[in-house]
User: What shape does this take?
Amino acid sequence: MAVAVIDSGGANVGSVRQALKRAGAETVLTQAPGVIKTASHVVLPGVGTAQAAMSTLKQAGLVSVIQGLTQPVLGVCLGLQLLFDASEEGLTPTPCLGIIPGSIKALRASPGLRLPHMGWNQLQWTTQEPIAQALSGDEWFYFVHSFAAVGDHPSLVARCQHGQSFAAVVRHNNFVACQFHPEKSATAGASLIEGFLRT
Amino acid sequence: MVAVRIIPCLDVKDGQVVKGVRFKDHRVMGDIVDLASRYRDHSADELVFYDITASPEKRSVDLKWIERVADAIDIPFCVAGGIRSVADARAVLRAGADKVSINSPALANPTLIDEMVDALGSQCVVVGVDSIEDNGQWWVRQNTGHPEAMTNPNRLTLDWVSEAQSRGAGEIVLNCMDADGVRSGYDIQQLKAVRAACRVPLIASGGAGQAQHFIDVFQQADVDGALAATIFHANTLPIPSLKQHLAKAAVHVRPTGF
Assistant: This one.
């Protein structure tokens, strides 16, 4: 099984590849359309800003490649946000991949609420999700972010709370994505990654 | 609701974990990957690795052990010590760290915080602050890794925390030097004062000696995480047992086994 990890310029690609390796997958870090199109699974990681990642994907000619993928695709953290129409991160909103309808917004500040949302949090699953079959639902996952798909989207399958409700996991056809970092979420995260590789 | 974080701090020297009291007389506590793996299994929420020789020796942090740690564990970790430029920080993150912590170089050149935040995102830029009481006020100290090299940049701790935050720091680690190494509890009064000025996550450091100290710092100073070293390395207070104490006291923790 060869998993294509898209090199979107983020710093977490090494950790994501290591987690896939622990789950028994061979990975290739790539920007090559041919490699990505023919991989059994594709992972879109991302740490950094939506603008920087979209400009990397555009320069590599990967926007339409990703939009056209039909195999299982997993977005991680910023990789989730990039799947939406747009992100309000930056001075002007950044157009993203437009695979999932809706836009990404800044988590709202409120007294006593720390931003970024940084640390371990639990999820509320709303829909049966194939990659989460081995989970009980009580697991904790590691989050680090200031932007999110806030509120309820049709693609939401698990939500999380940090001052407000936002999408922790989304599913749209063959695309699944998590706002947290499964590669840094110990046993619970490993279980999700194994679940993804089984889809 | 996000859980508070229990964070073992591993001082690294020549690829091994060491511990000294008040930065002196370093004793070897164990192999870096062995200890990191044990903490991961004991449900530590995050680890901090502090390269204690990189900064005083004016060299960049060694990337080899960072890669070894990243290969071995699947929880987040932060690297401190010897990170003086955006290029240093990027290399450390590329090697597998999730965050970098900067201290003395940020005091020497505060715009370094802005540069790192612009290049890497605020979520991975931590500012470490060493603070000491003097004449009824808290003051920052610089180059604390080496007693002879320590300097006084003449900045009030509260002012520096506010500035670091306004420059985009994603997290503040406050090391209260008067409490550090003496195991008589975190400096609640100082942490409360800094908490009031800090809207990003705040991590308490210095003084942990027993479970009640953690309960106190979370309940009274409302910090987001608590860092400790010796108490964990010497296994005086195993993390699973600490988390049970915290849960009993109604502090919101990620329990062991999840």
Observations:
- The longest strand of chain A covers residues 164-172.
- The interface with chain B takes residues 11-12, 14-15, 18-19, 22, 47-49, 109, 114-122, 138-140, 142-146, 161-162, 181, 183-190 of chain A (CB under 8 Å).
- Chain A has one domain: 2-198.
